[in-house]
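Page 47, continued from p. 46.
Same chain as before, 364 aa.
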Amino acid sequence: MEKIRLAIVGVGNCASSLIQGIEYYQRHEGSEKLGLMHYDLGGYQPGDMEVVAAFDVDKRKVGKPLGEAIFALPNCTRVISPQVTNSKTTVQMGHVLDGISDHMREYPEDQTFIIANEKPCDVEKVLRDSGAEILLNYLPVGSEEAAFFYATCCLNTGVSLINCIPVFIASNPGWGRRFAEEQIPIIGDDVKAQIGATIVHRALTQLFLDRGVKIDRTYQLNTGGNTDFLNMLNQKRLRSKKISKTEAVQSIVDYSLDDQDIHIGPSDYVPWQKDNKVCFLRIEGRGFGGVPLHLELRLSVEDSPNSAGVTIDAIRCCKLARDRKIGGPLTSVSAYAMKHPPEQVPDQIGRQMVEEFIQGLRER
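Result:
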């Protein structure tokens, strides 16, 4: 089967984990299915993809072979595959726009971005010349202008978009309509982790409700030491992120929690944590006879491989949609894989919808 041809904007930790993971499953083809929700998805296996174009703005990555750039600072995720052979592409200079927060210039070079002194490439030409089918958006949180720019490039070139960040594109009716009119599949917005803070919070919220417990208040606080957490110290960049994470949990509850009773979002940057993310979660409620109970949980995960475990399914579902000539937002896959999809549904229903989509029993 032909490879799925990917383009990536933002060669950070998430891109590094995904690319290393593709290599890992190519080397363990047929024998190592650990860590996958689907090994074979519609005929596509996890190794059936290659990155044919990549864009970044950091001088340590631009102009470098992708297999080298994914290990360059400030990337700090765990190494899965030290040798990467599944891409021969060179990282191109992207467009900075609002992709880098000003406060990040105040931090040591090994923790932050350093803008390359290069002229931005012609993104649309690179996408066309490379034959890319799907663009993965891994820009920093809060990069609205940049995200809209790359989404427009996709519309102009016929390339699908998987929007892994909390800028509302697939879930925005206007953008969704534009992708539908051009018959281009799009998945988004804001990727869920495989076993991450949001998916665990949703599962526990559902458990409380299924067992008849009235939820009174809840919080989710997260710390980490990668550039994502450093970027999110700028509260102005967090508006859509907090909306995305809060709605992902609030949508499970069939009554509205007061804004003062639900707090979900990043908490702080701890440099020595690197790509390890720690979630502190609390749910307070009342059970039988109105008697109070509460749950507290601490979850520690390697952040970027956690997202790659979901993205690798989203890629293959997007490819199925392209094979089937389906355009516009893929509601089933987005509900399954994203925190802020066009349509929020409970996770078990989202998974059922995706299985139906994979089998061809559901159009989108």
